Amino acid sequence: MRKTKAITALLTGLTLLLAACAGTRVAEMGRLPNRDNLVTLVVSEDRAVIEQHCQGALAAGPIYGCQVTRYSPLADGSSVRLIKIVRYTDRLPSPMALEIDVHELCHAVASLQSVPDPCHVGNNGFLQTAPRAIMRIH
User: Fold this and answer.
1) Please, which residues have CB within 8 angstroms of residue 79's CB and are 6 or more apart in sequence?
2) Could you tell me the mean pLDDT of each successive run of 10 residues in the chain, 138 residues long?
3) Measured distance CA(70)–CA(81) in Å, rounded
4) pLDDT on residue 132
5) pLDDT at site 135
6) Closest by CA position to 130, among listed 107, 104, 97, 101
7) Beta bridge mates, 118
8) pTM above 0.85, yes or no
9) What's the confidence (pLDDT) of residue 51?
């Protein structure tokens, strides 16, 4: 009887601990010929993850998100701006919602640069995380 109560208490504690674990989702899109991705989206319930990705960002208080830019050279000698968006959330988006978000961000970033839109490379414009049916995204 005592052993059963101890096991039940342990399982309850582990369940609560796991439920309290903060999650992070990362999505990349817009694979370029040099194998860099045009856009990376990091969404996390863990403030430490946000602070790690946003090191160096200026803020008057706690950092809840940032945008990180770096340049990547292309074969023709030009360069493209790679964008990483990092944001804190109180609830993670579903994998499908995250994929749609990064896909639309990819189109926005590509349209603001003189680079052919790479946002359908590797996915042909179809959701990879769609349940059961494959849905087209534009």
Assistant:
1) 71, 72, 73
2) 54 44 94 95 97 90 94 92 98 96 96 91 84 59
3) 6
4) 57
5) 59
6) 97
7) none
8) no
9) 95
Q: Tokens at residue 15, please?
A: 């369940």
Backbone angles phi, psi at 102, to 5 degrees: -70, -30
Q: How far apart are CA 130 and CA 96, in angstroms?
A: 6
* 8 Å CB contact between 107 and 119: yes
Residue type, 67: Q
Q: Regarding beta strands 24-31 and 65-73, do their DSSP bridges make them parallel or antiparallel, or are they unpaired?
A: unpaired
Q: How far apart are CA 21 and CA 135, in angstroms?
A: 32
3-state secondary structure of 34: coil
Phi/psi at 6 (5° precision): -65, -45
Tokens representing 113 are 């640069």
Helix (H, G, I), strand (E, B) or coil at 122: coil
**Could you give the angle at the alpha carbon of 114 between the alpha carbons of 109 and 119, nearest 5°?**
45
For tokens 């968006």, the residue is 85
Tell me the two tokens of residue 18: 């796991």
